[in-house]
TrEMBL record:
It comes from Brevundimonas bullata. InterPro entries: CueR, DNA-bd_dom_put_sf, MerR-type_HTH_dom, MerR_fam, Tscrpt_reg_MerR_DNA-bd. This is MerR family gold-responsive transcriptional activator of gol and ges genes. CDD domains: HTH_CueR. It comes from the Bacteria. One of its GO terms (molecular function) is DNA-binding transcription factor activity. Residues 1-69 form the HTH merR-type domain. One of its GO terms (cellular component) is cytoplasm. The keyword DNA-binding applies.
Length: 150
């Protein structure tokens, strides 16, 4: 099947299939005499595997490792579990970071009168030049300092 058919069957766009091929995540496709890529049902199955892994937030490098394990029938499930467990730790850190951002924004919104005055605690907080944590999330201390200025 051609790339359009493979994309439709797998739910992965033709552009992403080309990208995965370019980065080595998938093997270079066979070509027909016409030069068009030719994909098999096994390729489509691999694309679905990749799509599902991407939906779960795995990086391309992690997916490469998972594909290697998927193709290795002598694999140990402990290796797969290790990758998935490490990924959960990353997801939990992102969740904590997003929660902290949400709480900070909720506090800033609560401090804002939302009236016709130009004073805006949200903008005042954004203009602060103090160094932010590496995750880009402002600590609750910054919000507390803001409250004293409002």
């Amino acid at each position: 099947m051609n790339i359009g058919q493979a994309a439709k069957a797998s739910g992965v766009s033709a552009k992403m299939i080309r990208y995965y091929e370019q980065t080595g995540l998938i093997p270079v496709a066979d070509r027909k005499e016409s030069g068009y890529r030719d994909y098999s049902d096994a390729d489509v199955h691999r694309f679905r595997f990749i799509r599902r892994a991407r939906d779960l937030g795995f990086s391309v490098a992690e997916i490469q490792d998972l594909l290697s394990l998927w193709n290795d029938r002598s694999r140990q499930s402990a290796d797969v579990k290790r990758i998935a467990s490490a990924h959960i730790a990353v997801l939990n850190a992102r969740i904590a970071s997003l929660r902290q951002m949400s709480e900070t924004l909720q506090t800033l919104i609560a401090c804002c009168a939302g009236d016709n005055r130009p004073d805006c605690p949200i903008l005042m907080d954004l203009e602060e030049t103090s160094e932010a944590p590496p995750t880009g999330v402002r600590s609750a201390g910054g919000v507390g300092q803001l409250k004293s200025r409002v």
